[in-house]
Amino acid sequence: MRHFRISDQNPIKTKRLLLTPLTASELAVLEAQEQNELLRGAIAEMRRNVAAFPAQALWHTGWRISRRQDGEAVGLLGFHGVQQQATVELGYDIFSQHRGNGYCAEAVRALCDWAFGCEGVYFISALVDEANGASNHVLDKLKFYRVESPVDGLNGWELERPASAWLAVYMSIGLAIGISFGQTLFDNMATGLAIGLGAGIALGSGLDAQDRAARKRENAPKKIVPDTNEKPGS
């Protein structure tokens, strides 16, 4: 069993889980305990990046997945660095003895929600072994879509941040303001409504246009049209 020291730094809470980013010192302990050479090298790279880029540590470190009820570690997940072209790459693993409980989907959903709340992140990508049906199923369940993979034997997946809806928001605000101030300032509700609605449309449309522009990427991965007869990961 792998042991982690529980930290209070920036935890993300879900119904059953707590996602906690590991510090450089915690990664050093984990690195020393890891028997798998490949995983040990990956943890060492995390540790170096966390130490080198403290302001961006949350994008370089691993996040401990633990059960809220007893603090038991059930897995790890995290990103492979800061966003590039509005995209961050996700990796995750649930320890074998804890699989089959829905922890993976719950943790991945929470970390994706957190990432999409950060400035500049509009896409989350993942590469999953074609033979790992369970892992592919998790991403399919969370509404990731398939994209072309740069690596043979791995399925490419991507999730896009929901489009902004500022136009509707500011139209509603504009209407409310127009109704409120139309009679008071202009002694004419129609005038107030027209001004409020016009301002709301202008502001909302501008913000939505900025959102669309921020999603544009060079060399974006090509979406794969799903085969309705194909199971995720097959």
What's the topology here?
Layout: E1 12-13, E2 17-21, H1 24-33, H2 37-52, H3 57-60, E3 62-67, E4 73-79, E5 87-94, H4 103-116, E6 123-129, H5 133-141, E7 145-147, E8 154-160, H6 166-186, H7 189-214
Parallel strand pairs: 5-6
Antiparallel strand pairs: 1-2, 2-3, 3-4, 4-5, 6-8, 7-8
Helix pairs in contact: 1-2, 6-7
Q: Briefly, what is this?
A:
The chain is α+β, with helices and mostly antiparallel strands. The protein has helices at 24-33, 37-52, 57-60, 103-116, 133-141, 166-186, 189-214, and strands spanning 12-13, 17-21, 62-67, 73-79, 87-94, 123-129, 145-147, 154-160. The protein has two domains: 12-160, 3-Layer(aba) Sandwich (Aminopeptidase); 166-214, no CATH class.
